[in-house]
């Protein structure tokens, strides 16, 4: 079978890959905990938090704690041997893990960019992701860069062939560092792909970047990102094979770029699944096994313009997951990227995050550290299988746009109801924060918290009055919940003496509501309140309510309309 054939069949494990050698036996003191022991311990916690009823058996914890990804894949709360009984774990393609700290070089002024990238290289970066076009002064941009040591991966703006020639002309007689890539996009015209591939073969470098992070930026799920990337790569193989470049020669010319998010296990499994899918493609094409080269980029949509310092935590988790997942190169987005052009602090912090993971935590020192972990292996398999199915659906004409739109809608719903909380934005917002000022335009992607960011961009013109019932110990929990929720929508809260605010939120216990809620609401309306909100479940005497699971965006929008 060749790359020209349709992608048929299922996702069988590639037979050419050798299983890892050796085993490790551990001796444990005392009897091992049983499944029932874990169920009993987990149930005790859920009973205490009232997530389980008194009559619910302990085994119910599996349903309560199993979460489902946006692709509908179940993620077990506990890794157990049963999860992998049907899997052949000896045939997983593995990678040595990321040791390449790659920085993004993007802008209009070659002199400024040159100063920045030299500072990055001196500060620990090991490769460059260079946005350039046919008119870019590459000589000025890369002045002082040792191109035999630091790989350059191009991101062409415009003609990919002319851009590739520009880099090769600058290289001259220099032997390019391993990992250098002329960067033709996978969706480039056929003639451009062939031309860049031939230039790359002559120069001994890679030629094509399959940029799945672009699909991620549109809101795609993990499965959609995987399926699209592999189908895009298959298209490149078909084009090159049609031009006389055999699959065995073409496959090493490709590099794959994936997004890494702060959902660490999902990111680890996605990168492992991507290698499994690529190995399967090469097997179907009867090609020799070839390692999939991966560049992981910390997700831009997961970041937030508000409380941007939290972005450091998000990107650190994402970079950790990318390295554990086996990415060859990792780019950490600066924490201030959503605010405009990152400054020296943002670039240095991003660079140091990855450097610390590699040099102090030695994250990249172990090959496939998640290998053999039951939960991760199961998730890897399920993502790969679903990705293969989605690839086949796309090849048969399914709409990527429609699939991504459905994912975006579901993610927006989960963010709005705070089932998918965003720290510093939808949870624990700080209305008094002063955002760092950055030059240039803000990030051009739609963040996962875009709806909350839009509310924060235009603070409410008036505050909500918080009317508490009973002693502090009784009303504190609901008062804090309501205050936090309102702040997430740019709405301040005032306490003390009522001063005619149009919206009042009443916070207290259920008993207090039964005793004096209706009387309190009537008095507030008589004093000028246009809308009375109850913190907790809906009450007849209240116009609105807010509690766990409420559509926060809809609630905040209604509240702000009255305040306006």
Automatic annotation (TrEMBL):
InterPro entries, per database record: Cbl-dep_enz_cat, MeMalonylCoA_mutase_a/b_cat
The organism's place on the tree of life at top rank: Bacteria
Region Disordered, annotated ranges: 1-22
Gene3D superfamilies: Cobalamin-binding domain (3.40.50.280), Methylmalonyl-CoA mutase (3.20.20.240)
Annotated Methylmalonyl-CoA mutase alpha/beta chain catalytic domain residues: 207-428
Any one Gene Ontology BP term: propionate metabolic process, methylmalonyl pathway
Molecular function per GO: cobalamin binding; methylmalonyl-CoA mutase activity
Record's GO cellular component terms: cytoplasm
One Pfam family in the UniProt entry: MM_CoA_mutase
Subunit structure, interactors included: Heterodimer of an alpha and a beta chain.
Name of the featured protein: Methylmalonyl-CoA mutase
Organism: Nocardioides islandensis
């Amino acid at each position: 079978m060749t790359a020209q054939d349709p992608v048929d069949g299922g996702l069988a494990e590639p037979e050419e890959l050798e299983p890892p050698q050796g085993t490790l036996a551990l001796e444990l003191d005392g009897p091992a905990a049983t499944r029932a022991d874990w169920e009993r311990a987990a149930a005790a916690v859920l009973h205490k938090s009232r997530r389980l009823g008194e009559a619910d058996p302990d085994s119910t914890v599996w349903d309560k704690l199993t979460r489902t990804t946006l692709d509908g894949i179940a993620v077990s709360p506990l890794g157990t041997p049963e999860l992998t009984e049907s899997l052949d774990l000896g045939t997983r393609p593995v990678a040595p893990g990321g040791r390449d700290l790659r920085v993004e070089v993007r802008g209009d002024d070659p002199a400024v960019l040159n100063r920045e990238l030299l500072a990055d290289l001196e500060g620990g970066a090991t490769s460059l992701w260079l946005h350039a076009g046919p008119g870019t002064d590459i000589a000025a941009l890369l002045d002082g860069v040792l191109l035999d040591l630091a790989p350059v991966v191009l991101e062409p703006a415009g003609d990919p062939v002319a851009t590739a020639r520009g880099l090769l002309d600058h290289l001259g007689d220099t032997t390019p560092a391993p990992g250098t890539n002329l960067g033709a996009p996978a969706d480039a015209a056929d003639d451009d792909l062939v031309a860049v591939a031939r230039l790359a073969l002559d120069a001994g470098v890679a030629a094509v970047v399959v940029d799945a992070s672009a699909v991620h930026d549109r809101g795609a799920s993990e499965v959609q990102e995987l399926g699209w990337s592999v189908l895009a790569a298959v298209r490149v193989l078909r084009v090159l094979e049609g031009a006389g470049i055999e699959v065995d020669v073409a496959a090493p010319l490709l590099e794959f770029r994936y997004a890494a998010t702060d959902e660490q296990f999902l990111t680890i499994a996605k990168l492992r699944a991507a290698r499994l899918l690529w190995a399967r493609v090469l097997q179907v094409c009867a090609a020799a096994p070839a390692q999939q080269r991966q560049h992981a980029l910390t997700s831009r949509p997961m970041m937030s313009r508000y409380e941007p310092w939290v972005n450091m935590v998000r990107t650190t988790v994402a970079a950790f997951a990318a390295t554990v997942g086996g990415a060859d190169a990792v780019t950490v987005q600066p924490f201030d990227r959503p605010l405009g052009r990152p400054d020296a602090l943002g670039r240095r912090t991003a660079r140091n995050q990855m450097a610390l993971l590699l040099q102090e935590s030695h994250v990249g020192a172990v090959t496939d550290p998640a290998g053999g972990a039951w939960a991760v292996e199961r998730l890897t398999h399920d993502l790969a299988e679903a990705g293969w199915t989605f690839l086949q659906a796309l090849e048969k004409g399914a709409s990527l746009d429609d699939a991504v739109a459905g994912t975006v809608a579901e993610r927006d719903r989960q963010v709005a109801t705070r089932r998918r909380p965003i720290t510093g934005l939808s949870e624990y917002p700080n209305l008094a924060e002063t955002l760092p000022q950055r030059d240039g335009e803000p990030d051009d992607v739609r963040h996962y918290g875009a709806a909350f960011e839009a509310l924060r961009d235009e603070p409410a013109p008036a505050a909500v009055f918080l009317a508490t019932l009973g002693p502090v110990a009784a009303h504190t929990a609901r008062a804090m919940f309501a205050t936090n929720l309102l702040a997430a929508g740019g709405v301040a809260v005032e306490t003390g003496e009522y001063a005619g605010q149009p919206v009042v939120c009443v916070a207290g216990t259920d008993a207090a509501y039964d005793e004096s809620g209706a009387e309190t609401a009537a008095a507030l309306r008589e004093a000028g309140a246009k809308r009375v909100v109850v913190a907790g479940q809906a009450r007849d005497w209240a116009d609105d309510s807010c509690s766990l699971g409420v559509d926060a965006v809809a609630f905040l929008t209604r509240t702000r309309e009255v305040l306006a």
